[in-house]
Specification:
Blueprint lengths: L1 H24 L4 E8 L7 E4 L18 E8 L1 E9 L6 E9 L2 E9 L2 E8 L16 E8 L7 E5 L5 E6 L8 E4 L6 E8 L5 E8 L7 E7 L12 E7 L2
Parallel strand pairs: 1-6, 8-14
Antiparallel strand pairs: 1-3, 2-4, 4-5, 6-7, 8-11, 9-10, 9-12, 12-13, 14-15
């Protein structure tokens, strides 16, 4: 009886040991975070995408104003932190977030008041360019990160209706599909004050060069400023490609 009991205990211990080893070797699912720096006057930032308190900001790359970069992390609950590149003790964003496969973190506002917007990107449209007959299109959405802007209408020049209506600050439009043919295809997007219809900015978008892509067009800068670093304008952020 004693011998049988010892055998059972040995098997249980062996099983528990194997289970622990399996947990230790389990591969964690990965995530990526696209960080967009559109904070007027805040300068460059550095990003800790969830590496913990031992993260070496001194070795991190600067993310300049009006640009974006993709960072890798593990899926699940992580503390993501963004600091000023010139003073890494100054956190612009530090929050525990539930990272999914694809995520966006927008750094906006105007220094010293910095706004942030985090979102897990679910159901992003995707065009399979590798199939025999891919959809000759591009998916585009607009994001208003101009801190002093009034609500904005987005139009295509000479079109009868708006592509986006009354997009407020920190507003994000739905994705919309645009044709992107082999022959040169372009769209002239106009950004207008929704209340006065005043033209604020234009962008000639080359759809052929962006074929099969999923992207955001980010409105940044200060409305009414036409020159310099803080000028009102648009830059592009790609997903997948």
């Amino acid at each position: 009886m004693k011998k049988n009991l010892l055998s059972v205990i040995s098997v249980v211990l062996l099983f528990l040991g194997a289970a622990c080893e399996k947990d230790a070797d389990e591969i964690k699912a990965t995530a990526n975070i696209t960080v967009i720096n559109a904070a007027v006057g805040a300068g460059s930032v550095r990003v800790n995408p969830g590496a913990g308190s031992g993260f070496a900001y001194a070795k991190a790359s600067d993310l300049g104003y009006g640009s974006n970069s993709v960072y890798g992390a593990f899926r699940g609950i992580n503390t993501v932190t963004v600091v000023s590149a010139t003073d890494t003790t100054k956190a612009l964003f530090s929050r525990s977030v539930d990272l999914q496969s694809i995520n966006s973190l927008y750094i906006a506002g105007q220094s010293p008041t910095v706004d942030t917007l985090f979102r897990a990107e679910k159901n992003l449209p995707y065009i399979q360019s590798s199939v025999l007959s891919p959809d000759s299109s591009v998916y585009i959405r607009f994001v208003n990160l101009s801190p002093n802007s009034t609500p904005l209408n987005i139009t295509i020049r000479a079109a009868a209706s708006n592509e986006v209506t009354a997009l407020a600050y920190k507003g994000i439009s739905d994705f919309k599909k645009y044709a992107s043919k082999t022959a040169s295809t372009s769209y002239i997007f106009e950004v207008r004050d929704a209340a006065t219809n005043t033209l604020r900015s234009t962008l000639t978008f080359n759809a052929t060069a962006n074929r099969y892509k999923t992207l955001s067009l980010i409105i940044r800068g200060l409305m009414g400023t036409t020159t310099g670093t803080d000028a009102f304008g648009i830059f592009q952020v790609n997903y997948f490609n």
